[in-house]
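User: Teach me something about this protein's shape.
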Amino acid sequence: MPRNRKKQESPLSVGLWIRAALLCLVLGGTAMGYVWQKSQIHQLGTEVRKKEVRLELLRGDNERWQQLRAEMRSTQKLYDRVRTLGLGLAMPQPEQVLRLPDLPLDAKELKQSKLGDYRTVTNKPRRRRP
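Assistant: First, the predicted structure itself:
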C-alpha cells in the first residue's frame, strides 16, 4: 500500500472511462448501421414488388393493345368500317397500281426517271481526308 492516500490511484481511471465510451460508441454505431441497412433492404424490397406489379399490369395492357391493333388491321374489320361509315371506297383499278421492279444485283442505278416516277440513287462513299 502506498504511504499517501492522496497519491493512490482510483480503480476507475480516466483512460478506462475513455475506452468504455469508445466501445459503447462503436457498438452503438454498428447497431445503428445494422438497423439502417435492414430498413433499406426492406424499402428496396417493397419498391421491387411495386415495380413488378406495375410491370405485370403494363404487360397485360400491352397484350390488350396488340389484340386491338390486330383487330383494327384485319381486312374484314376495315371493310366493315368503310361500309358503316359510307366512305365509298373501292379497290383500285389495275392502272392505278404502281408496281416497283426489283433491281438486279449488279445494277447501280435505274435509268433517268420521268416526272412522277421513282428511282434509286447510289450512295458513293466519301473521300477520306489525307
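Now, about its shape. The mean pLDDT is 82. The helical segments are 14-73, 75-85. If you'd like, I can walk through any region in more detail.
User: That's plenty for now, thanks!
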